[in-house]
Structures are given as C-alpha cells and as structure tokens.
Design brief:
Helix content is about 10%, strand content about 35%. It has helices at about 40-80, 165, 220-225; strands at about 20-25, 30-35, 85-90, 125-130, 135-140, 145-155, 160-165, 185-190, 195-200, 205-210, 220, 235-240, 255-260, 265-270, 275-280, 290-295, 305-310, 320, 330, 345-350, 355-365, 370-375, 380, 385, 395-400, 405-410, 415-420, 425-435.
C-alpha cells in the first residue's frame, strides 16, 4: 500500500514568538525536553550585550585620546610660557655644558625635540640702555613652530622666555604666519627697541618690535605695506644704521637685506621700506646665499654710520661691501671648501675693540666653523674655530651679537659663547640660553 506523502512547507524564517525545545541530559538514555526562551528574547539580550561592549570601547578610546592631548598641550604650555632658563650668563670655569648620561656630547641628532625645532634658525641682538644696563635677545623656533625669544639683562643675569607666536595672535587677523623654517634676523637700537624680521607663509618680509619702555609686541605695518617678497630659500640680514652726525635728531634706521625671486640681494630701511636698493646683482651672488649685515666705522667721519654686507658669490668667494655706495672692492675667499651653491652654509659677524676688529664666521654643513678676522689692518683667515677646551664645535645654527657674543644650537639646546678677543679663533663657553 502506498501512502501519499504529506506536503510540508517549512517557513524560511522562524517566527520571533516560536518556542524552541532543547534536550536536557539525564541519566541513562532517556532525554527530557524543556522549552527554551524565545528567539526574540535572545536577540534582545545579544543587542544589549553588544551595545555595552561598544559603549565601553568608546569610553576607553576617549580616555586614551584625552591623555595624549593632555600631555602634548601640557608640554606646549610649558614651553610657551615665560620662565627663567636653567642658566645664567655668568662665565663658568668649564668649556662645555654639563650633560646627562642619556645625551651625547656634540650631538645634533634629530631625535624627539622638546625645546628647539630641528633646523631652526637663530637671530641675536644686543643694546645698552640709558642706565648702562646691557640687554641681549636670542630668537628661535620651538618644535611646534612657535617663535620664541630669550631675553637677558646685566641686572638680573638670567634668561627669560617670551612666545612671540602666542603674543602675535591678537596683532593681526589670523595671527602671525611664518614660513616653514623661516630665516630670522633681529636689530636693536640703543636706548629704544628690539625688532624681529621673518618671512611669512607667502615669503613676504615682515617684522614685529617692542620698546624698552613698553614691552607690548607691535606689528610693523609699514613693512607689510611695502610687500618685500623674498625668494623661497632666501636668508635675512638686519642691522641698525646709526645717524651719520651727532646733531642728527633721528635715531637712524632699521635696515633689512634679503634675496628676491631673481636672486638679487636687496636692501631697504624704514626711511621708506618701499624704496629698494640692489646691493648685489644676481650675477655675482649664489642663489640662496647666506647674507649678513654689521654696523661699521666710516673712515671719513670716524662714526659707526655705515654698514658692512657679506655674501657668497657664484665662484665661492666670500665678498664684502660697505653701505655708502655698495663698493664691492673688498672680497676674499674664507673657506675654499664652501659649496658653489651655499645651501646649508650660514654666516654671522661681530665686532670688538671699539668696532676696529671684525670677526666673520661661516657655519659649514658639517657643523664646524671657519672664520675671517679683520684685525684693523688686514684680513686673517682662521682655518677652524674651536672651544677653549680645544674641542671642535658642532652647531646646526649660529648667530652673533655686535658685542662679540656667539650663540649656537647644539642638539636640543641653545648655548652661549664669548669670542676670545686676543685669539678670535677660540670661543669661551658662557652658559645655556635655553634647553
């Protein structure tokens, strides 16, 4: 006998209110069955459990991010606030800074920086006020691209910090903008003011300043209006042009030099920043050459009323001109091994012995210094500058004030040295400026 099979169409989806039964193991082979919870209850429990996991994970991520941001912001605030550096400018018996066992002497490693931006430039200036107090300033960039300035005076003999970037946020809409690894230059006039020169993110020359009587930062709108556009790799140089006569009522002029997009070295001052003078035509200067300016004695009057400018020519020679007519008659080769294109070479210059002696230094790509010394009657090439201890320097950036002080970035620190005026090829260690 054949029975017709009963057709059974099973549903593709189990209804949510369907009760399942599961076996309950008992002794022997007998199995009892008990109804389980509904599928809807299982689904609801699973969703709640998954939500709890996601919620805990989100909270954990938020906590981790808060910890990271807190550490970074805390470090930024620490370095952006005004505080004394851990050194004075009193000369010490040692010839080099003490270092912890974790640091490498003479190292310019690009490891994690907390004080100084890798490849930061330096600028330094000095002046003496009416009370005879000496003032020095050193500008640089920190790892967050802020421009900081260290200030020292002979009354307190301590360094204090100002964050120019923070102070500049309210000066102009959007705050001060700086080109990546901006060149820096500074001028200071006796009894009065300190000025910082830099390139903004459009490679336009800009400046800010403050006075001794009013430390509030001021944006120099005349420079901005003159639209002095520099080449992307240009350096900057600045100096105070003193008045040529005692009876001059003015204080002289701020002067700044830079290389334009054609490669010419241009000069301008605050008599009218829009009036540019070509100091060196592009045919006689290496593109992106370092440039340096220094006040100089005018032989005709005996006053410090002219400027010296020095640069590197296309044939590697270091050349020198004076401000009055930019006569290029004085030129000489300081370092025969300088590259034709002077990328990585930095210049600095200072005077001593009542401005009768001039020391010009060039920082080579290997971190060492070579110098040329005008002793009042002739140029003297100094093969290599060393510290008083006899060890070679190894800086990544240099700057000098007009009173024979030298500053260098060594690793994550800025150090101060004085020029040995009896032997200008030797620098005496003074102290730590920052770091």
């Amino acid at each position: 006998m054949v029975y017709a099979q009963e057709q059974y169409n099973a549903p593709e989806v189990v209804p949510l209110d369907h009760k399942q039964v599961v076996p309950i193991e008992t002794s022997g082979s007998h199995k009892e069955y008990a109804p389980n919870v509904s599928v809807s209850a299982l689904t609801t429990g699973y969703v709640k459990h998954r939500r709890r996991i996601i919620f805990v994970a989100v909270i954990a991520i938020v906590v981790i991010i808060a910890i990271i941001l807190g550490g970074v912001l805390g470090t930024q605030l620490h370095h952006g606030s005004s505080h004394p550096a851990n050194a004075t400018s009193t000369p010490k018996a040692t010839d080099s800074p003490s270092r912890s066992s974790s640091s490498t002497p003479g190292s310019n490693s690009t490891a994690l920086r907390i004080n100084v931006l890798v490849n930061s430039r330096l600028a330094a200036s000095n002046f003496t006020d009416l009370q005879g107090v000496n003032h020095r300033t050193v500008f640089f960039q920190d790892p967050w691209n802020n421009i900081l300035v260290q200030q020292w005076n002979s009354t307190t003999s301590t360094w204090s910090t100002r964050n120019i970037s923070d102070e500049g946020k309210s000066l102009i809409p959007g705050g001060l903008k700086f080109a990546p690894r901006s060149p820096l230059a500074t001028t200071a006039t006796d009894y009065w003011d300190t000025t910082l020169w830099y390139l903004d993110n459009n490679y336009q020359v800009q400046s800010v300043y403050w006075t001794l009587n009013d430390s509030k930062l001021v944006f120099h709108s005349d420079v901005n209006d003159a639209r002095l556009i520099a080449n992307v790799g240009s350096s900057l140089a600045a100096a105070w042009q003193r008045p040529p006569r005692d009876n001059d009522t003015g204080r002289g002029f701020w002067g700044v030099a830079f290389q334009n997009m054609n490669g010419d070295v241009m000069f301008s001052n605050n008599s009218d920043f829009r009036l540019l003078t070509t100091v060196v035509a592009n045919a006689d200067v290496a593109m992106n050459s370092s440039i340096v300016l220094l006040p100089d004695i005018d032989p005709a009057s005996g006053r410090i009323s002219r400027l010296i400018v020095m640069w590197q020519s296309n044939n590697v020679a270091i050349k020198r001109s004076s401000y009055k007519n930019w006569d290029h008659g004085l030129d000489f080769s300081v370092i025969s091994s300088l590259p034709t294109l002077s990328s990585g070479v930095q210049f600095a210059m200072t005077a001593f012995k009542a401005w009768t002696n001039v020391l010009f230094i060039a920082l080579k790509p290997n971190g060492n210094l070579a110098s040329n010394w005008w002793d009042g009657s002739k140029f003297n090439n100094l093969a290599e500058t060393k510290l008083a201890s006899g060890s070679a320097v190894n800086f990544s950036a240099i700057a000098m004030t007009s009173d024979a002080m030298c500053y260098g970035i060594l690793g994550d620190r800025i150090l101060e040295y004085s020029v040995d005026q009896s032997n200008p090829a030797t620098f005496n260690y003074v102290g730590i400026v920052f770091g």
